[in-house]
Design a protein that fits this description.
single chain, alpha+beta, Cytochrome Bc1 Complex, Chain A, domain 1, 2 domains, six-stranded mixed sheet, 11 strands, globular
Amino acid sequence: MRAVAVALALCAVLGISLPARPQPAQPVFWRLPSGLRVLAQELPAQGLVAVSVLVGAGPRVEERSQAGISVLAREVMLKGTLRRDGHQLAEAMDVLGAELRALTGLDHTEWTLLVPQEGLDPALELLVEVLTQPRFAPEDVEAQRRVNLVRLRQQRDQPQARAAELVSQALYPHHPYRNPVLGTPESLAHLRREDLVRYHAAVYTAPNVVVSVAGEVPAAVAVAKIQRLFAALPSTPVPRRLHLLERVERVLAEQPRAQRELREVQQTAAAWIALGYLGVGVGHPDWPALRVAATLLGGGMASRLFQSLREREGLAYAVGAAFPTQRGPGALTLSAGVDPANVDRAVAAMLREVEALRSRPVPDEEVARARSRVVGLHLLDHEDLRRRAFYPAWYELLGVGYRFDTEVAERVAKVTASDVHRVGRRYLEHPVVAVVGPAR
């Protein structure tokens, strides 16, 4: 895999288009009577099976007073069930040679299991136990609350993370994406066991869950196992307010009408700059062109920001760009780590590169290079069995359907130079500029 990554990087730098690679086969899809959606792919995997359980539990579904509850609930669920404590759960997984990971993003909480084929049934039983029978012991809630508060303070002390948080708060003043994944000190201080129990009952329901299985198990067998073992998930519909959010989402996240600058003092050796522009959700027709635009501006050593700020002007030690895949409007964010003395020059240089993309046509070969990088990284990520299970479930949960996973490359390949120019003019006009670092 390292050799493939090196080859991809060289092709991106040299502007060489990669030959077409075969797309992953479509998984088999079932929607069970409970509302649970199940995906299955039989793949050669050296005797391993990956199971990804995607739950619509993240900042997007949290109320402001609940900020951080998805992560808090997830961590406390791992501390024990009605049948065994966290240590016993870990021991039982170890005996099976299984690994369980859990993480939370803006739209979801992911539970991913990797296990040898022969241990699949007992490992699935343990996973279902965690998902459906959490004990939410008061002492576990309090202990995890303290841990999350420490993590939150540490994150806010990191200038890169803090600059991104400031951008998010400014771009989403009314949208739940404003809520940090870990929450806020105020929200964490008020969350109690009863809140976690109610939240779990509301979102850990079959219609709000997608289960995906990939590896050495026949698809029909995998679906039968999931149907039997996940029968304990209640079939309660998702809260009505989430359906309302889908109808008012664009009103809650409107395009800024003027540039806004935020500065926060931190006594760090370097300063961090973030420029944020409000984009679109994954289902929007402009999403592929914005992915390409972000890559063209800050994706890799061939990007405009790297060549300008790093190579020509020597203003930054790190540059980057991100345009996340989200159900609601995503923020295209450009970032740079700089010497505090270079902040103003670096901000001006970053804004110049964005304006150049907006005001002048982009050369076709530059767009082709960016397209190749986006597609190549997408395909590389599918070499991991866990990601093969994750991606179709993720797109299904995000509302664009599991087939979108095999359509990404085709959609990106159709992006033209005029598309990049158009989305630049439409979305990259009024940034939020956040600077975190020492006082000038």
